Amino acid sequence: MPVTAAPDLQALVDRICAEMSAIEARGKVADYIPGLARVDPKHFGIAITTHDGQMFAAGDADTSFSIQSVSKVFALTMALGKVGDALWKRVGREPSGNAFNSIVQLEAEQGIPRNPFINAGAIVVSDVVLAGHEPKEAIGEILRFMREVAGDDGITIDNEVAQGEADTGFRNTALANYMRAFGNIHHPVEQVLGVYFHQCALAMNCRQLARAGRYLMLEGQHPDTGFNIVSPMRARRINALMMLCGHYDGSGEFAFRVGIPGKSGVGGGILCVVPGIASIAVWSPGLNERGNSTLGSLALERIAVATGWSVFNQREPG
User: Fold this and answer.
1) Is residue 32 among the annotated active site residues?
2) Is 89 assigned a catalytic role?
3) Distance (Å, rounded) from C-alpha 195 to C-alpha 284?
4) Does 258 qualify as catalytic in the annotation?
5) Residue 215 designated active-site
6) Distances (CA, A) of 132 to 51, 78, 136, 230
């Protein structure tokens, strides 16, 4: 049985939102894509949806933003649905210890990325999602999946951001070509990157993103339909990867301070999953030196302290 949620989550998110608004050191907005560079760093939004279907939100929770690498969680879910554990022959499951767009390890490790959440690993995942489709069809499948898990047909792809990704994606192009040289990319690089860039350009708000994470909170089950998106074992393993690798070379620090499986994106969003209890989305576009939301990380640390939701806390049986 899931642990009962903290008694007044609305008061908690309201308080944290007020605390975040008073902080001036917000980090730096990602500026390598014009669509991200224009976002006001004063934004802060938070939404928590609980295992019993309640929603608690504050701040800019209804403002859409580019979820960027948070999308890698959902692309991974789709790829595992297509090829199962065969995926792990092409992508590892270990923390990288390097920047999210690093090429350093690929040569030593024969073109096999360390995990599916660094850029190289996510590009391999896009290659898997693309299999059997034209790029537009694969992009459509990703969008349909996101709408399904969030229960919201209003989710879109920001085409301006996708184009900005393509115009500035030289390092991602290098990663993809390098892996293709090792035989770990099976489709034309430009097609794989087209899928990857559009996936990263998904536009969602905190409420939608929190709802999208519900199946990982509920052992793989979609709460609206009762059907399993993934098996309970696969949901646990995706959560484990989020804990170990979800914040690039800042994953250890996030586990140390927050202790909740999560995935960040350079758009300033973070999705966290408290198994059996809650799915949390925060958004603040200012980033720290590791590329993770400065205020988002701080807000999640305060939530973990206030609720005891860290997975490292001892809980009484339900």
Assistant:
1) no
2) no
3) 26
4) no
5) no
6) 36, 13, 12, 21
Token digits of residue 218: 């509920």
How far apart (Å, rounded) are the C-alpha atoms in residues 150 and 152?
5
Mean pLDDT on 11-25 = 95
For residues 131-148, b (16+ Cβ closer than 10 Å) or e, as one string? eeeebeebbebbbebbbb
Q: Hey, CA dihedral for 241, 247, 251, 255, is it positive or negative? A: negative
Which residue stretches of the chain are H helix?
9-21, 34-37, 71-83, 104-108, 119-130, 135-150, 159-168, 170-181, 189-200, 206-212, 214-217, 232-245, 251-257, 294-307
In percent, the amount of the chain with pLDDT more than 70 equals: 94
Catalytic residue among 3, 13, 66, 69: 69
Q: What is the DSSP letter of 6?
A: P
Cα 37 to Cα 32: distance, rounded to the nearest angstrom: 7
pTM assigned to the model: 0.94
Catalytic residue (choose from 70, 72, 264, 279): 72
Which pairs with CB-CB distance under 8 Å and at least 24 residues apart come from 226-229? 229/77, 229/149
Q: Which of 66, 192, 248, 279 is catalytic?
A: 248
The per-residue pLDDT for range 96-144, each reduced to its tens digit, is 766 656 677 788 888 999 999 999 999 999 999 999 999 999 999 999 9
Residue 15 CB burial class (10 angstroms; 0-12, 13-18, ≥19)? middle
Selected catalytic residue, list 196, 215, 251, 273: 196
CA atoms of 254 and 248, how far apart (whole Å): 10
Per-residue pLDDT tens digits for 164-176: 999 999 999 999 9
Question: For tokens 């909740």, what's the residue?
Answer: 260
79-99: b or e for each residue (b if 16 or more CB lie within 10 Å)? bbeeeeeebeebbbeebbeee
